[in-house]
Write a structure and sequence with these properties.
Elements (H helix, E strand, L loop, with lengths): L5 H8 L3 H11 L5 E2 L5 E2 L2 H15 L4 H4 L4 H14 L3 H14 L2 H15 L1 H22 L4 H20 L11 E7 L6 H12 L3 E9 L1 H11 L3 E5 L6 H14 L4 E5 L14 E3 L3 H8 L4
Parallel strand pairs: 3-4, 3-5, 5-6, 6-7
Antiparallel strand pairs: 1-2
Helix pairs in contact: 3-5, 3-6, 6-7, 6-8, 6-9, 7-8, 9-10, 10-13
Length: 294
């Protein structure tokens, strides 16, 4: 079971900490534990409750009405909404609950239903990525436990691999060649896998080298295969202090290859790059490159 601060709940639910305190006092709707220094601590059940309240509020339920609902009735109302309302925010909500509960059956239903309705790529862009971004900071700070992170990441990873395996690729004379890899020590593979899916789906040639690749091996592949682009995602390795040095090393070693960068250690971190190195802040940028529009 994970522990959350009131700021964690605010970030995940969109409900201001001040509002949560008022609800606690006025409606006794949530009763967090407290530390010896009187700081509020919330558990998984508290987080689920706040997320469910936030969803009902978004669907015009009044907090005074919500406070009167039993736990069972509240859950029934939420399930009814997420099953019927096939919009992105509600599905992100349902996915968050599935992660907290380690509920694979619920996850499978969300993924299959939304893939059918929106298509796999659209679902990834508008549901899975916003979900990962929403909870990503909690992973970094340790508010969400490794079990929950590994559970949801591995399920998404499995879906991506199956989707990639099902693609039919038709290369043409204009197809570009991409090398995809993660730096040595980097294990967060979801961005790389989705980039693989996006690039292959637009008939580009992809050499997928995966996680924690030694730099010398990257150099060997690029020297022999001569790709047009290198793509990597830097989430935790190298460290913040070493990222600039690593990016500069890439640019110096591969002067004739365009470099594409993304990840927590790169986006918004003031990394200095050469003109033909691009920092990918949104998947639409990669799609433009994949379609040879950039």
């Amino acid at each position: 079971m994970s522990n959350y601060s009131i700021r964690d709940l605010e970030q995940l639910s969109g409900i201001k900490a001040h509002t949560l305190r008022i609800w606690e006092q006025r409606y006794n709707i949530i009763a967090p534990k407290r530390t010896d220094t009187n700081i509020r601590i919330y558990d998984d059940q508290d987080l689920k409750l706040v997320l469910n309240i936030a969803l009902l509020k978004e669907h015009e339920y009044k907090i005074s009405e919500i406070a009167k609902l039993s736990a069972e009735r509240l859950s029934t109302e939420v399930i009814s909404i997420t099953d019927k309302k096939q919009n992105y925010p509600d599905q992100i909500h349902a996915l968050t609950i599935a992660m907290i509960d380690l509920d694979e059956e619920k996850f499978e239903k969300i993924m299959s239903t939304n893939a059918l309705k929106f298509g796999f790529e659209d679902m990834m862009i508008n549901i899975i990525y916003p979900f990962l971004n929403r909870i990503g900071i909690l992973w970094v700070t340790g508010s969400i436990g490794p079990a929950q992170e590994h559970f949801i990441s591995n399920l998404i990873r499995q879906k991506l691999i199956v989707a990639i395996d099902g693609q039919v690729i038709r290369h043409n004379p204009h197809s570009k060649k991409f090398v995809l890899f993660l730096p040595e020590g980097e294990l967060h593979e979801l961005s790389l896998l989705f980039a693989n899916y996006v690039l292959r789906g637009r008939n580009n040639k992809v050499i997928y080298l995966g996680q924690t690749l030694p730099f010398d091996e990257l150099a060997y592949v690029c020297d022999t295969q001569k790709p047009d682009y290198i793509f990597t995602a830097i989430t935790s390795h190298p460290s913040q202090d070493e990222t600039q040095k690593y990016v500069s090393k890439l640019e110096k070693r591969f002067p004739n290859i365009k470099i594409l960068l993304t990840g927590f250690q790169v986006i918004g971190q003031g990394i200095e790059t050469r003109p033909d190195t691009s920092i990918i802040t949104h998947i639409s940028q990669l799609i433009e490159i994949a379609e040879h529009k950039a």
